[in-house]
Amino acid sequence: MQARALLHIARAVSRHLERDRVFSAIATAVGEFVPHDKMALMMPNPDGEGNVLYALHGPHDPDRIYEGRVYPSGDHSVVDALIADPRPRVIGTRDDLGPFTVARTAFEEVGVHSAILLPLVARGRGIGVFCLMSDRPHAFADTDLEPLVDIADAIAIALFNSMQFEENARLRAQLAAENAVLRDVVRGDTARWELIGDSPAMQRVRALVDQVAPTDTTVLVTGETGTGKERVATRVWARSRRAGRVFVKVNCAALSAGLVESELFGHEKGAFTGAHADRAGRFEVADGGTIFLDEVGELPLETQAKLLRVLQSGEFERIGSSRTRTTDARIVAATNRDLEQLVADGRFRADLYYRLNVFPIAVPPLREHPEDIPALVDHILARVARSLGRPFDGVAPGAVDRLMRYDWPGNVRELQNVIERAAIVSRGPVLQIDDLGGQASAPRLRVAAGQTLVEVERAYIMQVLEECGWTVAGERGAAARLGLNPNTLRSRMQKLGIRRPERA
What we know:
CATH class of the largest domain: Alpha Beta
Strand content: 15-25%
Strand order of the largest sheet: 3-2-1-6-5-4
Number of strands: 17
Helix content: 40-55%
Number of helices: 18
Distance between the termini: 83 Å
Mean pLDDT: 82
Oligomer: single chain
Largest sheet: 6 strands, antiparallel
Low-confidence stretches: 184-189, 437-444
CATH superfamily of the largest domain: GAF domain
Number of domains: 4
Radius of gyration: 30 Å
């Protein structure tokens, strides 16, 4: 029978690498010659102190709610004692646990009275404790130990291999996640994070960035859409001590309410429909580096509470897991919203706002520093020329003056769109800006006294949508006019209650 158990375990290792399946196969094999009510696996917590109940198998599914629970380590932990002194033990009653109060509490929680505790040793080190448990006192005898001791090595190897498989899978998933975000990360081209312009307004921004960058202080970048908040955040990262580590960007406005927590904090396999594998969240990927939360004002209130916890303690849980994880990620957030007004309206947590607003940096709209437009045009044109693979000798006479007279409601992003479009349609080496897509001649939005910022924003978006025939995407769509991603514009329309009027 012992040989058959070894065969079952060997087959489990060869057929399955997932720990849950290996554990189930071991339970079946061991149960043939040592009857028990429950079987558990306790292992040291890889993320910190304590020991984790990795698995609890028994006839009652509700028992599995205890999986993932972390129990204290130390002198009162039988797991620590067995790893230090790997000798199996038979526990006849809870009283036999003596000073191990942690185990006594755990036994009481799951209704266990007696147990066999088997230390697991793989590659010369203790990896955990394998437990066979009974709901009855004195269910096991010393004679039950002999066959278990003989197969302990096989159990340890099987579980160790499954752990290695899971760790490799986790690392692959983390690497894939890092690669996904690194495609959006600055790749060493300093032009991507330089702040263009020598106006007093931009000099102030540059000075603030250079003051805060060397610290780990949380930064809140504010400003209208298209002003260059992401570039400011990137410069904070590039000039920090964390510049050699990952820079993770998250557009909170582009995430649906159902996916935002999974994206930020990760999820476990099976946590929800479509969660086919464990997935590291952006905070896990950003550990040791910097995370940029763009449009942070769009986060749901429930997610705001979890973000506050990360800011306070660095702790979070993946969706579908009770295991607490930690991250050492510097947070740089950005918003084009009036967060103080959102706090007053009850749509943004006051405590989170104060945690984020430790070091605010306000990026001015382009209309407040038009003297920087010539330098911006040169910078954008040089980048576009490289992208198109064709040289430009400059901009047509008078074009820059015309650009400087416009107030740019879409800010630098709108200017960039104009230059890119002009470069594509220009025939010769001189950039011609004959058509601004209607921007320069567009009627200015009239703001009535007493209007709130939200009302002004709604009115302006409505005006642009009307001018674009309610076309959101495309070269001449409202998103391009506003310098927004089409999905971001659709999100703003939904939040502001903007709908196309029905035709009569």
